[in-house]
Amino acid sequence: MYRQGTARGTETAWYQGWDLTENERATFRATTIASQQAKRQAIAGECTASKHPIYSPRLDPLDLMPRLHANGLSALSLFSGGGGMDIGFDRAGFGHVASYEIMEGAAAVLRAAHPDWTVYGGDSGDVRRVEWGKYRGKVDVLHGGPPCQPFSNAGRQNGALDVRDMIPEFVRAVKAIRPRVFVCENVSGLATKRFEEYVKSTIIEPLERQYVIRQFILNAADYGVPQTRRRVLFVGFADKEEAARFEIPAPTHRHDQSKGSGHNLPKTMGVREALGLPETGVDALSPTLRSGLTGPRHTTSVLSSVSALKLWNKLGVWPNGVAVDRAAASGYVAKNGDFRLSLPDCLVLQGFPGDWPVQRPVYFALGLIGNSVAPPMAYNLANAVAKALCPAKL
Length: 394
Ligand SMILES: C[S@@+](CC[C@H](N)C(=O)[O-])C[C@H]1O[C@@H](n2cnc3c(N)ncnc32)[C@H](O)[C@@H]1O
Hints:
The chain is an alpha/beta fold. The chain is built from 12 helices and 9 strands. Helix 2 packs across helix 12, helix 4 packs parallel to helix 5 and helix 10 (343-350) runs parallel beside helix 11.
């Protein structure tokens, strides 16, 4: 069971803003008013800067995850968010059992994308309320990315003291369902020394008698996603032979941070190339996109750090005030003239299908994108799991 946190800002649900001081609130309010005014002026044509053209992306993330034939295996999704993991498993040929997600708005996106899926949202999607025994013996893979805020470098790293820590709930589901494989994903902060004891006592010890567990880190850029995005994975196999057959998915692409081998692999595109922007002689992977739902307040910025800002500046791309679509971005030129991102651009940078039905408000859509596992990374992982489970078929 989770414990109630005591540190400031961790007693609220993960998707609510932190409790701010009056001064902090006033500063944020002033910034919001200034940018809303600039946006209104731009839309009213009062902006002196010229529009930037609407560019067509060169990267189609679906090319990174060609749909495979049904493999006869089933996957149940917990903490499904906007569906990054679900897309990866679906395109790798897994049957979709159900998705559980507490935010009704996120569940609505999954239903809109896949009316044929069983999606539980809101109270009925709250994993704390579910009796998982009904799925026992019916699920090959149970996957989930419990909220990462308790462990994220961008947060306060209160771990188990944070009310948002849902990893024990994931473990409860694994124990009740006993899938052949579980896949648990989180921010790489969870793999640091600070959380070593937590990982041992909360994930490894409760499950190691029934599962052979592997822990490793994957970077989405190794699978063609134009973004540096590292995630830690815990993959557990109930069967020892299947566990021995499992291989961590090898990179399918090389990029500016690739080390050693892989020279023959296709190159992961940089931000400018992926979005189809004109060449400037400078291109690179996108810094990790931050979620619009985390941090002190909801935001339409994808900026994750000071070093990220330097990189965005070099790329000539403006990471704040993301626009709802490319037409809106083109008419609302950033103060410094840099290219303004839109939601469809962020989908591409995260490896989502360009038409994935995330919608306004922009901060919420960015929350789903920035919280997700990049689908091509999930796809390669799903494939590696499928190969270990039924090697003859694949
Ligand atoms: C890191 S995101 C998961 C992203 C997802 N794996 C993907 O690839 O898009 C964590 C999700 O857990 C959801 N969540 C948090 N508490 C929950 C609960 N008690 N029951 C169900 N979902 C919950 C959040 O709303 C959030 O969407």
